[in-house]
Structure formats: structure tokens, C-alpha cells
Amino acid sequence: MTTTLLRTAAELHARARAGRRAVVMTMGALHEGHATLIRTARGIAGPDGEVVVTVFVNPLQFGKGEDLDRYPRTLDADIDLAGQSGADVVFAPSVDEVYPGGEPEVRITAGPMGERLEGSSRPGHFDGMLTVVAKLLHLTRPDLALYGQKDAQQLALIRRMVRDLNFGVEIVGVPTVREEDGLALSSRNRYLSAAERRTALALSGALFAGQDRHAAQEALRARAREVPATRARAEALSAIGESRAAADTHAVATAVPGGPAAVRAAARQVLDEAARLDPPLALDYLALVDPSDFTEIGDDFTGDAVLAVAARVGATRLIDNIPLTFGSFGAAS
After folding, report:
1. pTM for the full predicted model
2. Which of 66, 188, 281, 284 has the largest CB neighbor count within 10 A?
3. What pLDDT digit, counting tens, does each position of 243-289 carry?
4. C-alpha angle with apex 285: 281 to 291, nearest 5 degrees?
């Protein structure tokens, strides 16, 4: 389809609107993950709606020593990919268009949730992110906006901002897109050498190890509910455990309901091994958190959680996460 490049909000506002407008916000260097967002937006907006893709490298999101100047700018390729994926408009404003008169004096503050995990590693990052998201929501005036779940903390904060400040827009989260080897798609993957990429696979490997441990625990608890609360139950759990050696089931069978500690341990083991590779993985954080506020969950937690990891490989910093639900079978009797 024909995709129109617009540079100013006035041009965008002048377009006739019929159906719903869906916006996908990006910093450019589009890849299949962005394409999935755009295709999802197209499906939601429908043939009568409009899909707008923003391309803007936001200087407020980059801290001292981060890769603002290094961040790839590939606008022509971005327009092609956006069009192939179903976008009607690529909105690529200048810094002056978004921040007339220079950096804004008044900004959105992310609050306590924005100081955890990514916020602790990158002070001020989420304030800058929320400020530009708020600006772009006003500039594009969408009915809905789509964001990838790979940036789970960012998505949670955007949802909180929209709710707390009464933005009239629907926020849609889209599952993480991965390459065939499991690495989460990111514009920064292109910085990795072949050796660095092999090490970087430990991020998704750690998450999958945690997910496998979690699945084993949930299966054990489901079986435990079928066994009377007697000595026979303990023997049955041990028998089940013997058949699941790959999941270290002796620990699983004796774990408290929910077993977050065992999930963390399984993921940590993969990351510890990657720290001894050449080149090594330098872990920033591994966290198992409540997605409502990104605080660490306890061993008695039930409900939705996010297992998140961030690390550096060489000069490249990568993040990844996976959703988990604890207690989906209910507490063991």
C-alpha cells in the first residue's frame, strides 16, 4: 500500500479521518517486531481505519554515555517496511517539531515504579520516555496505541500514565517477537558480533529455563491436589520428581506453593554460565516482579508475574522478559 511520509503535526491533523486511528510508536530501525505491531494495528483499525507509525529518536530517553548518536537511522527502509506491513502514514517529526524551543521544562515523572529495574540502571530514562509518549499521543491523536511486551516496564508505565492522567486512548500490548534462535528482536541486535550473539542467547535461555521450572512446579502442584494429604502424598511427589530430573524436581517438589525462588535459581544458573563465556555476559539484573508495580514477588505470590533480565554483551545492552502466572492450578491441598 502507499504510505505517506509526514513531518509535522499540522499535516497529520489535516488528514481526513473516518474509522479509528491506531498508532505504533518507534525510534526507527524497524524490524519484524515492529512489523508485527503494525500488522496488529492494521487488523484492529480495519480497512476503514488508519495506521500511523511514528519514527522519532527521542533524546530525552538517552542518558550520559548511552548510544543516542550511535542509534541507527534508516528512514527510507522504515517507510518501506511500514508500508508493506499496512501503515498508512509514517510520521517522522524533527526534534524541533516535538520539542519547540528546546528540551521541555515540564515533564512526566514516572514515580516509584520508574525508579526500579530499568529506571535504576538508566536514571531519568522513563521520565523521558513518558514525556515523549505523552507528546506523541497529543500530536497524533489516536484512538489506540500499540506497544511491544518486550519492553514490559515501559508498557506498564504507559498504561499507568494513561490511566492516572485520563488520556482518552486504548493501550494494546503485543507479545514479544523472537528470532529463530530465541533472541528477542531489537534494533540493537545488529551491533552484536557472531561471538557476542552466541553469548546474548543466554538472556532468552535464562527466561526459558525459568519458564520450564515454573511449568514443572505447576504440574507437580496439579498432581498434588489429586493425592490425599498423607505420607502417601509425599511419596507420590517424590515419585513424580524422579521422572522430571531435567527440572531438578527434588527442589521443585519441596518448594513452597508458587516457587518463585526456584524459578529465579533456574534462570540464574544459565546467566552464571554465560558470565564465563568469551565474550562474557555482564548481568545488570534478573528480577521476578509483579507487573502492576515492578516490585519483587514473594514465595507466597499468586497471579501474573514478569521474569525480566538485562545484561551487556560487549558494548551492547539488551533486555528481555517473559510472563508467568503463579498458582494457576490453585494452592495444593
Report:
1. 0.84
2. 281
3. 554 445 444 444 444 489 999 999 999 999 999 999 999 999 999 99
4. 135
